[in-house]
Each structure stands twice: as C-alpha cells, then as structure tokens.
Amino acid sequence: MNFKLHTQLGAKFKLVVRKVGDNSIVRETAWFHNIVLDAGLARMSAGTWIDRCCIGTGNSTPVATQTALDNFIASTTTKQSSSAISNTTTAPYYYGGRITWRFGEGVAAGNISEVGLGWGNSNLWNRALIKDANGNPTTITVLSDEYLDVVSEIRVYPTQNLSGGFNLLDKTGAVISTHTYTGTPFFAGANSISFDKVSLGTNNNGNYIYISPGTTTALVVSPSGTMIPYVLSTSYPTVTSVRGVWTVGLSVANHVHQTFYVGINGLIDIGYYCGYRVQISPTITKNSLQVMTYTFELSWGRYTG
C-alpha cells in the first residue's frame, strides 16, 4: 500500500539597514520573492539545507540551475530572531519560519543587489535579486557605520488535495481488495525551526505514524488513533523524494484503518505535527492474525504561485 504525497517550497525577503548606536532604520526594501534552486531542492534529501544568508552585488536573472550568487560579498549565520509562521485560514495554506539574519557593522558595506540562503557560501538553496516595491531589480546601500538585517520567510505549501489508489495484497501478492485514498495537510503545533534532511514521521526521535478508525476534515488538528512507532525503512528514490515504510505487527492497531497521519521532519520542523492526513475508502479492518505494511512517499518542488 503506497501513498504518494507532494509539497512545494518558496521564500521571500526584506532587507533593513540600521544605524549603529540608535538602531534606527535608514533604508529598507519591500518584500520580494525568490527562486528555489535545483541544487537546493536536491540538498534536502542529503543534509542541512539552510544555515546561513549570503549577499552579493550580482544582477543576472535568477535561474533554477544556479548554485551560488553572481558576486559573493559576505555571509552570516547569526540569527537575530526566528519564529514559526503559518496560514490556516485562507488558501493557499502554508507553514514555515521567519528568520532575521544579521550582518554586523560594516560587514555588508556596499551596494547590495542579490541575496540567498544555503548551507555554504557557494551552495545556495535559493537566490533572489533585490527588488523595489514595483518588482524591479534595485540595490540597497549599506555604509560602514551601518548594519544589515535580512528578514526571510521560508514557506512550505502542502498540496491541498491528494488522491490515488492501491490494491491490498496478501503475502503471495494476490489482490485482496482495491481502495482509493484522499489526502489533505494538517497543522498541529509550532515551536522551533530547523532545516534538516527530510524524513517522514511525526516525531524526530521515533518517526511515528498514527492510524485512526475515524475521520476528520479539520485543518488544525492533533493526530489521533494508534501510534505506530519507528519507521521500518527510509530511502530516497530520487534527490527530491523520500519513502518511509511502516510495519504494523500482530498485536498492534487491531481495528478499522481509515485515517493515517504522517508528519514531515526536516521540511522546516516547527513542532511535532505538520504533515498529511490520508483517508482510505473502503476502510480496512485489521485483526491479530495479520501484519500490515504501509508505505508513504513524499516528493517536493519549488512553489510557483
């Protein structure tokens, strides 16, 4: 039984220049958007994908195949502030993190025209040209007695509605029954931010899924039902996907299986519970003579909305 899930990611920036001493704002930009790079998407299946902010003076149009800024000037790993964000009221729904990266006095001095986040000064997850309120490329000047704050929002946009089907097979591979499934995102908590190698499960320490006999349509909800701990195996079919396999043993979850909750780790961890809720039809009733195996596969790409 294989459930396929998908999500998209994007980010936006705002730059603020402040005077040393009184911390007053002397210049700032409007919010502007980015392009998530191919190398950045691939990095998410390998390790930490954001740990710094980079600035430069290049002006080429960002394209997905780039890996670095045109003309790197400086980077910082200093997070002046960070907070979890989410939108659960109006589509498109998203969750993510807002981080303010600080470049100290004089570090960012010059005419800055490009910015990106990544895991190395030449290894970027995204890139953007600095733009004015009308969406036109521009520069922002930082003097030697000023410091720069780069405010970034990194967002995860789960696919709002997923659907598919599968055959329930016995141990010989014979078809027992045919089922369809629908999937929707769920949000149930936000407290911290990290950008780690992506995996599936509702807890970093156990990688649980939950199996429930009931249904729910609420967007903000905590997973309920029988907890199935410890993923049997995790693999990466492509550089932009992860597969997790759970086995439900003889003594576990002997009831109707209708709703499955699977969380996502590393894809901006903002709490235990952000992920997908999958509901199947018709339901499956498991008993103590059966072992069930469920497979979830998540793929990701850049947000284009």
Written description of the protein model:
The strands form four sheets. Strands 1, 2, 3, 7, 8, 14, 20, 21 and 24 form a nine-stranded mixed beta sheet that branches. Strands 15, 16, 17, 18, 19, 22 and 23 form a seven-stranded antiparallel beta sheet that branches. Strands 4, 5, 6, 10, 11 and 12 form a six-stranded antiparallel beta sheet that branches. The longest helix has 6 residues. Helices cover 2% and strands 53% of the residues. It has 305 residues and is mainly beta. Strand 15 and strand 16 form a beta hairpin. It folds into two domains: 154 residues, no CATH class; 143 residues, no CATH class.
Explain the layout of strands and helices.
Layout: E1 2-19, E2 25-28, E3 32-33, E4 35-36, H1 38-43, E5 52-56, E6 72-76, E7 79-87, E8 94-103, E9 110-112, E10 114-120, E11 123-124, E12 126-129, E13 140-142, E14 146-158, E15 162-169, E16 175-187, E17 199-200, E18 209-212, E19 226-228, E20 233-235, E21 241-248, E22 256-265, E23 274-285, E24 292-302
Parallel strand pairs: 1-24
Antiparallel strand pairs: 1-2, 1-3, 1-14, 4-12, 5-6, 5-10, 7-8, 8-14, 9-13, 10-11, 10-12, 15-16, 16-23, 17-22, 18-19, 18-22, 20-21, 21-24, 22-23
Quick take:
The chain contains one helix and 24 strands. The chain is mostly beta strands and 305 residues long.
Keywords:
2% helix; mainly beta; single chain; 24 strands; seven-stranded antiparallel sheet; nine-stranded mixed sheet; 1 helix; 2 domains; 305 residues
